[in-house]
Amino acid sequence: xxxxxxxxxxxxxxxxxxxxxxxxxxxxxxxxxxxxxxxxxxxxxxxxxxxxxxxxxxxxxxxxxxxxxxxxxxxxxxxxxxxxxxxxxxxxxxxxxxxxxxxxxxxxxxxxxxxxxxxxxxxxxxxxxxxxxxxxxxxxx
Length: 141
Fold this sequence. Notes:
Layout: H1 2-18, H2 20-40, H3 45-64, H4 68-89, H5 98-124, H6 132-138
Helix pairs in contact: 1-2, 2-3, 2-5, 3-4, 5-6
């Protein structure tokens, strides 16, 4: 069993190294998942704080992956947005802040959608499409 786990980890790690664009998508999905779980556990402070903490950590990873030299204004914008999401999520203590969770899900879902449309779709069709917008988005990470 241990060998199977190690092999699965190696496959995943190698896949992420070969296709970092997919890693960004996975980070978006992970943050959104944790925020949805936080909504479900809004009345259970321990679970709520665990999910919020994980979401904040994931958004922090998205922020840490920004390339300001190549990403320019887009990277600056995302840095500000990620900072705001982290700052607001750190205020969540219960039902009163449910709107913060919902707004964070909305922003991250929209960013994930844009990422999939502009970067992942162009990666699959790279031979056929010369799309400057997807190239500029890739330079952000």
